Automatic annotation (TrEMBL):
Name of the protein this chain belongs to: Terpene synthase
Molecular-function GO term, any one: metal ion binding
EC number: 4.2.3.-
Cytoplasm is among the record's keywords: no
Record-linked InterPro entries: Isoprenoid_synthase_dom_sf (IPR008949), Terpene_cyclase-like_2 (IPR034686)
Keywords from the UniProt entry: Lyase, Magnesium, Metal-binding
Ranges annotated as spanning the membrane: none
Any single Pfam family the record assigns to this protein: Terpene_syn_C_2
Recorded family membership: Belongs to the terpene synthase family.
Length: 268
């Protein structure tokens, strides 16, 4: 898991830390070269900048998929394609200087966050792949989506000072500012409000799963769902703890009092 998280952060910086992040040709070529690792589709050789990431991903893919069922490998591959291709959209948005509307941004953020990938990886770490029939259950989908939103939107709050200073429009704070006459603080407050709602939705859905779904499942599936919920909770709390401590976000989009209000009950 640590190797994957390191790769995801490093790959993200290929776009965030250089002018290539707005270069659509670079994004398209990078996506094609990266996606070939798990799709098998041919592509041009990766550029010298991207090649180390492709080589590292080949190793990660081989190690991670060993012993996992084919349907899970397909799901991880699909989630990786969505994630990597989101950088093409990211480049187009920033090059055009036109922010997405709020609902479109929410849909984009679900795949650009890589959270679904990390939830897949949690199944691999536990050696408990969720069946496809369970994955589409409304409660499971709602829990995974809420966890994704909590991680993604809190990340947007912490990274807003850096991303707004770079003119990056793929941030929830920037999206809200583009739609109305809001200051950065007002937009951050609104994202904080949305976070409260998602935290409540996750907690409620988690309770529904424990009360109405898990007791009706075979033992193996029960353990898989419990493991999935643990991964969601750990990813939520771990992301908040890391965001509060890392030097990656030296500036804060929200002050300490607001941090306590929004994230206080997630740290335990």
């Amino acid at each position: 898991m640590a190797d994957w998280i390191g790769w995801l952060f490093a790959f993200d910086d290929v776009f965030d830390e250089s002018i290539d992040g707005c270069d659509q040709d670079f994004a398209i070529a990078t996506a094609a070269a990266t996606n070939t690792v798990y799709t098998g589709l041919p592509s041009a050789p990766p550029s010298p900048v991207v090649r180390p990431y492709v080589v590292a991903l080949e190793d990660l893919w081989e190690r991670t998929t060993q012993g996992m069922p084919a349907y899970w490998c397909r799901r991880l591959a699909n989630d990786m394609v969505d994630y990597v291709n989101s950088y093409r959209s990211h480049a187009l948005i920033n090059a055009s200087r036109i922010a997405l509307d709020e609902q479109s941004y929410r849909a984009h953020r679900l795949i650009s966050s890589a959270v679904f990938i990390t939830l897949d990886l949690g199944e691999a770490a536990a050696r408990r792949a969720l069946s496809e029939s369970l994955l589409v259950h409304p409660y499971i989908r709602a829990a995974r989506e809420a966890a994704n939103n909590i991680v993604s939107w809190s990340n947007d709050l912490y990274s807003a000072p850096k991303e707004l200073s770079l003119g990056d429009l793929c941030n929830y704070v920037a999206v809200l500012q583009s739609q109305g006459d809001l200051t950065t603080a007002q937009a951050a407050d609104r994202v904080s409000q949305y976070l409260h709602e998602e935290i409540a939705r996750f907690d409620q859905t988690k309770q529904l799963i424990h009360t109405h779904l898990i007791p009706r499942l075979p033992t193996e599936d029960q353990q898989g769902v419990i493991s999935m919920l643990d991964t969601c909770s750990n990813w939520i709390t771990g992301n908040v703890a890391w965001s509060l401590e890392t030097a990656r976000y030296a500036s804060r989009a929200i002050d300490m009092e607001r941090e306590k209000e929004v994230f206080g009950d997630l740290r335990t």
